[in-house]
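Illustration: tyrosine--tRNA ligase.
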Amino acid sequence: MDNKEASRAVDALIPSATSSDHFTSTTQIMDNQEASEAIEALSLTASPSDPSISASQMSLEEKFKIVRSIGEECIQEDELMNLLAKKPQPVCYDGFEPSGRMHIAQGVLKALNVNKLTSAGCKVKIWIADWFAQLNNKMGGDLKKIEVVGQYLIEIWKAVGMNLEGNQVEFLWSSKEINSRAHEYWPLVMDIARRNKLPRILRCCQIMGRSEQDELTAAQIFYPCMQCADIFFLKADICQLGMDQRKVNVLAREYCDDIKRKNKPIILSHHMLPGLQEGQEKMSKSDPSSSIYMEDEEAEVNLKIKKAFCPPKVVEKNPCLEYIKYIILPWFNEFKIERSAENGGDRTYKNFEELAADYESGSLHPADLKPALSKAINKILQPVRDHFKNDQKAKDLMKRVKSFKVTR
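Result:
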């Protein structure tokens, strides 16, 4: 298809929501310092289940602060502001491979982010990438097992508190959606593939947990072209994925340049939580000591946190502190330390800066921080445990998922 045909195809899939002729600059609303302070404050006060006001009551600035707070990086902020000003219900795309048990970053962090987006009036489409998991050889490429894992993950998000009221969150199975609209999907995939050289596609292999040096199958090489097409196929205004998915989202913006499309998907990349052991930049499902699973028992959580890397007086690359910053403080709006009077007495932190300063100075010790962290995580996970013990469907799903061999 030529440039005009491709552009029309994408236009049909993504309704125009912004206009470069009428965009509102972020700096017209607030200066950089004010914006930074507002975003920081909001990231520590947004509750997953207790939105203070409805989206219809929010100002443009308030919506922007909530949505922007999710991203460690945003491409581009002026486009995000303009989108929120022009479109009452922007569409956010998130997706996941059903590839095994769910860890706390995928479970709690995603619930927090989705609830922030819906509180600001966005619609979130969560792409259950079953075909992609098969392409990537997850669960040995067994699509039936992959479907079981997908159902199990949805049960966890329901239990942990993802706000699914009001049809603002939609779970879509890739195999079903692609088959039902194959005439739209595959021409788009082929056009993306035709316009990109193999080295450019190989640079996107990080999205699958692979590297350019890995020996890839033909299916895995095709994967980035499909994920890029998903963004347009789902009519997404915002790509809300982790920093590890950044390259394919940039590919989608480059594709818009190729077909001369002005309205590009906005990239909102969230922070990647590290593993619990030293030097683990990302949690690994294949390493139980690296991550806390969403249905881990209280004793398991306590043991994993007890063994976690947490050097005294060191804030940078400290996984325990990152858990507090990105999970505990946003969830509870505070972090409570319980300790004896001779060790400084109880202390409640309302923001990460105060906690980091105390930890760096040595007035807060890992021996006091770790039990408090375990207690907070267990409080978050208890409804999930209860659901998987009391709901027969959920219990059966978990039993089956635990019996599956995880393949990479």
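Reading the tokens back as a structure: The CA atoms of residues 289 and 304 lie 6 Å apart.
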